[in-house]
Amino acid sequence: xxxxxxxxxxxxxxxxxxxxxxxxxxxxSCSSHVHTKHSKVSLAKAGATERSTVMNLMERLKxxxxxxxxxxxxxAQAMEGMKATERSLMSMIECTLAEVINNLMKQGDxxxxxxxxxxxxxxxxxxxxxxxxxxxxxxxxxxxxxxxxVLDSGKMREIVCLRSVVEDQINGLQAPRxxxxxxxxPSLTINESLKSMLSHSNxxxxxxxxxxxxxxxxxxxxxxxxxxxxxxxxxxxxxPQPRQRAWNLHGFDTELCDDENDAKLTGVSVSNNxxxxxxDENNSLLKCFIDCGDHTISISLPDDDDPCSVxxxxxxxxxxxxxxxxxxxxxxTMLRKLLLRGSESDYHLAAYxxxxxxxxxxxxxxxxxxxxNGKMINRVKPCGYEGVRFHYLAINSDERFIVADYGKKCILxxxxxxxxxxxxxxxxxxxxxxxxSPHSICTDEDDNIMVTERNRILLFWPGGDFREELLTTANGxxxxxxxxxxxxxxxxxxxxxxxxxxxxxxxx
Length: 508
Prior knowledge:
elongated, 31 strands, alpha+beta
């Protein structure tokens, strides 16, 4: 309904003119009297003139409104990102606390078992000594009763012979060797410095934004100042601390609101434009996320097949499920379906640039290479290597395959011709050789090799020599399962609880 506009000087009279001098709308009476010498124009003409201006202002208002709506969406996304970060950090805190507590409990259980075993051993020694004593006491009593009987009989011949019998018995009454209680009694030494450190030092700190200083979650308890100990010429210099090579950038949860089951992530790959694709076996989905953790799309395989491993090459998603290999567009459009060799329970994948995807063939200890059209272009088997079961794999820039042999618990490096460069089944840490149990494998842009174990990520040189521990539970890393490197050379870590954590690397 059109709104009627009346003259302010003559209520009830409709306006007809725009007084340009006063910039106000007026009626005919005002035009003839008060505004007679002013510059005036009819409302129809003024409206035609202002129409385009008003339309431009409306367009600007529309643009400004859209900008505000976009800002509102950005704020909502930022809030969700903040909540996701909170959940991720909370999970890291809980996992770290559980790890620390479990380690302390394991130490306590170990020392208690050692103590119990020692005491049981000492009890056996005491029991043997006690049984020997009881036997000698019985023999002594029997000898005394026998001797008394001989004396009471008055038989002199027996009494003469009795002396040697009693003397022999007395000589045999030497006390058995009993462990010295003071020397064998166990004692417990508590590492007071470590206990004090755990009680008064902060295990966690949190920073709020890139420019803020680190703030501890809890202020350390006040301690009395202690005198500086005098320097000793025999004092041992502290061991140099390892250089930090990975920084937690952010993390997010892959669980979606419509998931029917807890996420079980079995594969991960990152596209050239930074889309993180994970295989969620429990929910039969490929889930796609942008780097900050926002979910973009979920892809279901035909027949609701459960995805196992995933690799992206030439903007194509390759995904294994059982003994089938699917190739899909990034939007989930089905391109082709291939049948893989053998009947393994899982086939793990790795892409070499945009040329092909390599399929690890488990107990056959071989790799099959498929191009973008689904054609098998080669089959690679390491020469002279007696393997057990190939598992996760990676391919470096020199087209060398780095494979985890799950059965032999080793890492194997070989080329496309099958020539084996090296195998590694243990690492040397602080001069002690330790066996490894490799799981997931990836390489960075400089061909450095990273390998996950149960509660740590190991770093190797490109040639396969062990370098150092890259991340452990001491870095707040819970249970790493699968790793890859994104297009920015950041390390993407899938954890057992379904969280993804992204680390910035400095492996120079």
